[in-house]
Specification:
Blueprint: E1 3-15, E2 30-33, H1 39-50, H2 63-70, E3 75-82, E4 85-95, E5 99-107, H3 117-131, E6 135-141, H4 148-154, E7 158-170
Parallel strand pairs: 5-6
Antiparallel strand pairs: 1-6, 1-7, 2-3, 3-4, 4-5
Helix pairs in contact: 1-2
């Protein structure tokens, strides 16, 4: 796999007060917590959701690395479904001192642009606050969807840190699996 040196800007955002409860939108999907951690499921979600945003860091993980990660007591995986079709997911990681990170969040590309992101983020925030005492947070970067940071800020997150780094990232668009690129 060819790689290219890339400059990446990262925004770390946090919410230190739980939002006031509001009348929830009618949820056009079912949200279910994964009860039996499965490395294959999390890798599928990571690769499928993250391909369009260059989520490359975990792609080389072996099965045991995924197993060790998804079976940690501090990790929760939530999946949204329309019918029997997964449309997106988020992972929560409970951290020391009452904090919970929304470690991964996103929709499968075919479901982006259908008006699901706002409600799905509200659900992720609500579930994160169910495990947090005083703070939820996440990070996003210039590789992510262009609407990611505005969506987080519009839901009440505040930037608490920014940083720049360079990394060797795949030069070609990522695919959920080898040869998965859709015909153009």
């Amino acid at each position: 796999m060819r790689k290219v040196k890339t400059s990446i800007h990262v925004w770390h955002v946090e919410m230190t007060d739980r939002p006031e409860a509001s009348e929830p939108d009618a949820r056009p999907y079912r949200l279910l917590k994964v009860e039996q951690p499965l490395p294959e499921l999390n890798r599928f979600l990571y690769a499928t959701v993250g391909a369009s945003c260059m989520w490359y860091m975990r792609l080389p993980w072996r099965w045991q690395q995924w197993q060790d990660y998804v079976t940690k007591e501090s990790i929760e995986t939530w999946v949204a479904y329309q019918g029997a079709t997964p449309i997106g997911y988020f992972e929560l990681e409970k951290q020391p001192r009452g904090s919970t990170e929304i470690a991964y969040f996103g929709l499968i590309p075919e479901f982006i642009g259908r008006g699901l992101g706002r409600q799905f983020l509200r659900d992720a925030i609500s579930k994160a606050w169910d495990t947090a005492d005083n703070r939820i947070w996440l990070h996003t970067c210039t590789l992510d969807h262009p609407n990611a940071l505005p969506n987080y800020l519009n839901r009440g997150f505040k930037i608490f840190k920014e940083e720049d780094f360079e990394d060797m990232i795949p030069a070609d668009p990522l695919q959920p699996w080898e040869g998965a690129a859709k015909p153009t």
